[in-house]
Amino acid sequence: MLKSKKARVFLATVSLSLTLVQTAYAGTYKVVAGDSLYKIGNLFNTTASTIMKYNNLKDTYIYPGQVLYVPSDTYTVKAGDSLYLIAKKYGISLYSLRKANNKWDDYIYPGQVLNIPGSTPTTGSSYVSDNGNSVYQEPSRGSVYRGVITYSLSDLDLLARLITAEADGEPYEAKVGVGAVVINRVKDYRFPNTISDVIYEKTDGYYQFTPVENGWINKPASEEAKKAAYDALHGSDPTHGALFYFDDSATNSWLWSQPIAARIGRMVFTYLK
């Protein structure tokens, strides 16, 4: 959990080893029974070999529940959207939109990031070629990627580890919310301006995130946490701009005194007065 000058709230976190190639992927896809790299490639207008390269796969074996990075445009859901309207906007079938996102009900929420099948990721002029792969070059950090903020693979790794610890067992939306809080802090002038500096920040001698303090930040992240970190980095924020979060069993009066932005599962997300 997050701590402040007035509060220390303890939680738990875990570390991750991402084995990704330096490629400008734009979406993630969760494998379901009956999938093959060939079928997924057809859905996203690419090839099995390209997907293997994006995910550093040594063979074509995939399994249900596995999260793959795919070349695809993404769309961030806005108020008033529906799956039908999004499919119509991009000139694709509703079925293919559902399939690309494993989304078989009609519930979507503002800030949710959806894959757009049959497209290729668009990149701005800030992207350059690096050994045949499109990545953004930032002198101080090397190859970085464009989301709502720029980030490196190590940033994605660190954020996914934090999400695993802080929201393991919580709904997927809560996991994305944890990532979004970190990103909201990066963008807020009152906090450090990088993912690493936010997560490792100390206030009055105490770490802001307990998993850093107890070492759980060095344990592996779940596949779902990796996807949640990616979605948060690319604009999904079910907390609507929150800067803090804590478990609803917390008894600290200062935490509960802050304006509540969202409650997801057992997690409470708040603004800062």
TrEMBL record:
Keywords: Signal. InterPro entries: Cell_wall_hydrolase_SleB, LysM, LysM_dom_sf, SleB_dom1. SMART domains: LysM (SM00257). Residues 1-26 form the signal peptide. The keyword Signal applies. GO terms for molecular function: hydrolase activity; lytic endotransglycosylase activity. It comes from the Bacteria. It holds the Pfam family LysM. Residues 27-70, 73-116 form the LysM domain. This is LysM domain-containing protein. It comes from Caldanaerobius fijiensis DSM 17918.
